[in-house]
TrEMBL record:
O-methyltransferase dimerisation domain residues: 1-76
GO biological process, one term: methylation
Gene3D superfamilies: 1.10.287.1350, Vaccinia Virus protein VP39, Winged helix-like DNA-binding domain superfamily/Winged helix DNA-binding domain
Molecular functions (GO terms): O-methyltransferase activity; protein dimerization activity
InterPro entries, per the entry: COMT-like (IPR016461), COMT_C (IPR001077), COMT_dimerisation (IPR012967), SAM-dependent_MTases_sf (IPR029063), WH-like_DNA-bd_sf (IPR036388), WH_DNA-bd_sf (IPR036390)
Protein name as catalogued: Methyltransferase
Domain O-methyltransferase C-terminal: 100-311
Keyword S-adenosyl-L-methionine: yes
Assigned keywords, A-Z: Methyltransferase, S-adenosyl-L-methionine, Transferase
Pfam families: Dimerisation (PF08100), Methyltransf_2 (PF00891)
Active site: 236
The UniProt record lists the keyword Methyltransferase: yes
Origin superkingdom: Bacteria
Amino acid sequence: MRLVFGSLAAQTVRAAVRLRVVELLGDKKRSAVAVAADAGAAPQPMTRLLRALTSLGLLREHEAGSFSVTPAGTLLDPQRPHSLTSLVRMFTEPMMLRAWERLDDSVRTGDIAFDASSGKDFFSHLKELPDLSAEFNAAMSRAARATAAVLPHAFDFGRFRSVTDVGGGDGTVLSGVLREHPTLTGVVYDTEEGLAQAAATLVGQGLTPRCSLVAGDFFRSVPEGSDLYLMKSILHDWTDDQAVAILTHCRRVLPPAGRVLIVEPVLPEVVDTGTDTDGLTYLTDLNMLVNVGGRERTRTDFEDVCRRAGLALTSVTPLTRADPYFLIEATAA
């Protein structure tokens, strides 16, 4: 029953974000009537929403009709640094959910449900809607923060001179690396839409002198000049052939001692319910199928796409404290 009602819980959380429930409650007890008034909502339905959020562990009801925010609920406050509100907005976005309604069609055909339901691919859809594109960038930035915190200490960046973050978005991950390795220089490489917030990130971190922004299309080329090419959550957006194309462009500019570092989940060859008890990685895999046409991959799958691109996979290491991500290192074959 929890599985069947999962989409209802997601919509409840979406409504809480859209009505700014956690922001309006703040850090004290407030009545549902007061929250409703500030949200421009009706008191009785607001009480029902707050009680549903309480049942999901996001709020606490003290006396009847009086609520406060739990630690889990603070994740829905956009003013907090650990907020998940951008992720909530993105993953409950109606266009994404419409694609999920066609999951069975994608399973039958292998086709991308998003393209069929919207008439265009996911990234073209974002390109036409700057506000949604900014929301997507914020969601990806939030998802990258745990990686940005641990990656600089989990890999020997000190042996390299320059790192290009391919599909680096707003620069969150590369900023984390450059902050901890002051001799490194960097390049954030992405589309113009992907880079829209990157300049502000670099300025905020004081990294502008050591990092440049380059707009382009990684299906056509990647910039020359680095000895490390980093990709965080990029290949899983694309089919195997497209992943090979991206990796091939990296291989073409890779110096003899250079490396390609891929940061993505690595699925076990056989499902292990002991390590993925909530199924999130496999649900993400299906999300790739219906919305963008990509996939999560096993080690064997990564070895295959690397081999086809002229690369040799040399190691696969769990990224501690950034589950479910792994560090996948490759060299020129």
